[in-house]
Amino acid sequence: MQRYIDCHCHISATDFDDDIDDVIVQSQKAGIMALIGVAEHAGEFEKVIQLSQRFPGFVMPCLGVHPVQGRDPACPRGALLEDLDSALPLIEKYKEHIVAIGEVGLDFTPRVVNSDAGKESQRQVLIRQAEIAKHLNLPLNVHSRSAGRPTIHLLKELGVENALLHAFDGKTSVAMEGLHAGYYFSIPPSIIRSEQQKLVKQLPLENLCLETDSPALGPEKQVRNEPRNIVISAEYIAQTKGIPLEKVIEVTTHNALRLFPKLKTFIKV
Ligand SMILES: [Zn+2]
């Protein structure tokens, strides 16, 4: 039975180039009914769209400019408004096909940004994309790192109503503010080795979704993560909350369909 939804996954990452068909088959065998393929920069958009056409009704495209940019992963930089120049026309072109805007957000890790100006430009990039999401009536798929409070405060200030906070690393008290704004929080398989376990305990199931962030945030560090590991997130939530796995699957899938309503029109039943 197909029943999980992976709400945040980098299926267009080069890590999957060699065995994408097998990764998709394994995901389906594990019970995933759809996965949201997020993008990080304009250069990746066409690939995400192509994957959604190659696996129709299963890979759901989501386009956006990530707060961390730079071709060389060893030298990351914060997003700049210029990064939107090539991205926005493509978002406009594919607006009918995408289920959300993302991956967007704020990343205030010191090695990414070390000045107020740098943080401000990330904010501007997020603000612009939040406006577009509102205009297109799409939810946001949000990254926040060392920036939990500024991210949730900015989303609220902007009047964002529909957002998924993926792999949230902020305080539970800040997450609660997001919860009251109606935001959802997705839990990756790395939760089993994470410091964010309190979050799972304290946030109600009604505000949780499942994600893998593949190929990152797997159960084991340095090992490629895959969508099929979503089962690990679900089992962890079930154990922590002392509820049946079936309940976790049912409610998180219901939440995902509510937050990303276009999934319903694209999923092949
Ligand atoms: Zn991600």
UniProtKB/TrEMBL annotation:
Q: Which SUPFAM superfamilies match?
A: Metallo-dependent hydrolases
> What Pfam families does this protein map onto?
TatD_DNase (PF01026)
The residues listed in the UniProt record as binding a divalent metal cation 1, with positions renumbered to this chain, are H8, H10, E103, D213
Is Ion transport there in the keyword field? no
What span is annotated as the signal peptide, if there is one? none
Which UniProt keywords are listed? Hydrolase, Metal-binding
> At which positions is a divalent metal cation 2 bound?
H143, H166
GO MF, one example: metal ion binding
Q: State the superkingdom.
A: Eukaryota
Please state which protein family the record places this protein in.
Belongs to the metallo-dependent hydrolases superfamily. TatD-type hydrolase family.
Entry function = Exhibits 3'-exonuclease activities and apurinic/apyrimidinic (AP) endonuclease (in vitro). Show preferential AP endonuclease activity on double-stranded DNA substrates and 3'- exonuclease activity on single-stranded DNA.
Instruction: Name the chain's protein.
Output: TatD DNase domain containing 3
